[in-house]
């Protein structure tokens, strides 16, 4: 899987105002800015991203994903 493919999968399942993905094909880091994160704790935000990925984490298609999840307001205050 490429960074662009992973980015497209996340964007298809979650409304994103900003989304960047980088990694080596197995280990990924994503910065995700979404209004869907409003009012959610970090673990719930991550669960929303995992839901967008579907079974790709379980099947090891995406081996590891670290992420920074922000609301648009948080991102405006401190851009990644």
Amount of beta strand: 25-35%
> How many domain regions?
1
Quaternary arrangement of the chains shown? single chain
Helix content range of the residues, please? 25-40%
- What's the rounded overall pLDDT mean? 92
Structural class, please? Answer: alpha+beta
How many strand elements? 3
- Overall geometric form: globular
CATH C-level name? Alpha Beta
Gyration radius over CA: 12 Å
How is the CATH topology named?
GMP Synthetase, Chain A, domain 3
| Parts with pLDDT < 50 across at least 5 consecutive residues | none
Note the run of SSEs as H and E. Answer: HEEHEH
Q: How would you characterize this protein structure?
A:
By secondary structure, the chain is of the alpha+beta class. It has a single domain, classed as 2-Layer Sandwich (GMP Synthetase, Chain A, domain 3), CATH 3.30.300.90. The chain has helices at residues 3-13, 42-53, 72-77; strands at residues 18-23, 27-33, 64-70. It has a three-stranded mixed β-sheet. It is globular and about 35 Å long. The N and C termini lie far apart (24 Å). The mean pLDDT is 92. This is Acid stress-induced BolA-like protein IbaG/YrbA. InterPro entries: BolA, BolA-like_sf, BolA/IbaG_stress_morph_reg, C5_DNA_meth_AS.
